[in-house]
Design a protein that fits this description.
27% helix; 262 residues; alpha/beta; binds S-adenosylmethionine; 11 strands; Rossmann fold; seven-stranded mixed β-sheet; two-stranded antiparallel sheet
């Protein structure tokens, strides 16, 4: 395994534990039956009853299990053994039928020849992937003909901003070079010894083009002037469940959603 992906796995093993215990992920609400899915993906993915759904980078399984609660036959895949162990335990505890697999999403052999009606990924997934060409080919390979791909993701504009969202801290375009970070806490809180990790910026055009190059047909692309998670300190809540940049409310794209068909 690439040493940078192995470093990311160490980080996500730590963050899976912290995140599942955090207020950010509201496990009490989830255990009581609340969905972790947001209105954007619920509207775009639509009715999933009896559909097979592959969730890429499923973390500890909240969204995967939320799709299952809506009637989908779900498979979640994630790099972190800790996240997958927690997802499996959560499914068992809640009596939800789900399959989880621990693997790098860019490993073309991880899922064999399995094909799904829907492939889904969201919020903080793409920045961990060095090669979107390989990612898009995995999606195309695991969709049935006519199957749909949906992503709802933080807009790449966010990643260029500094901590106060006042200056440009890093480039918009992917130079191929990984950005190295050293974290001592997750976006959901907690404290831990420093762990290094690596991320790759991907422009909107790079994301769209990788899917087109893999043979998928783009069916929608939307940008949103708000975020649905308060993952950055420069965001403040403008109305329930919607966060904007304090000094630029409504002026920057903070999320995008994309749908494509095979
Ligand atoms: C921010 S989380 C996913 C977001 C998800 N919407 C959530 O909040 O539950 C990112 C996930 O990507 C996973 N990940 C990172 N790199 C990966 C890779 N190369 N293959 C598979 N999973 C990966 C991490 O282990 C982590 O669980």
């Amino acid at each position: 395994m690439d040493s940078r992906i192995a470093a990311n796995r160490r980080l996500w093993n730590e963050w899976a534990r912290i995140n599942q215990e955090s207020d950010f992920y509201d496990m009490a609400g989830f255990r009581a039956g609340q969905t972790s899915l947001k209105p954007i993906e619920l509207a775009e993915v639509g009715d999933v009853t009896a559909k097979s759904l592959l969730h890429l980078q499923c973390h500890f399984g909240q969204d995967t299990l939320s799709w299952a609660r809506l009637g989908a036959k779900v498979t979640g895949i994630d790099l972190s053994p800790e996240a997958i162990a927690r997802a499996e335990a959560l499914a068992k505890e809640l009596g939800i039928d789900a399959r989880f697999l621990c693997a790098d999403v860019l490993d073309p052999k991880a899922l064999g020849d399995a094909q799904f009606d829907i492939v889904f990924t969201s919020y903080g997934a793409l920045n961990w992937l060095p090669d979107l060409g390989a990612w898009a080919r995995v999606i195309a390979r695991h969709l049935k003909p006519g199957g749909r791909f949906h992503v709802v993701e933080f807009h790449p504009i966010i990643s260029i901003l500094d901590e106060d969202a006042k200056q440009i801290a890093s480039g918009y375009f992917n130079s191929g070079e990984a950005l190295r970070f050293e974290s001592t806490a997750s976006y959901a809180g907690g404290d831990h010894a420093p762990i290094e990790s690596f991320e790759w910026p991907h422009s909107l055009a790079e994301i769209v083009q990788s899917l087109l190059d893999a043979g998928l047909t783009l069916t929608s692309l939307r940008e949103f002037p708000y975020c649905v998670h308060k993952c950055w300190t420069f965001l403040e809540e403008s109305e329930p469940g919607r966060y904007v940049v304090k000094h630029h409310p409504g002026k920057l794209p903070l999320l995008f959603s994309l749908s494509a068909r095979k």
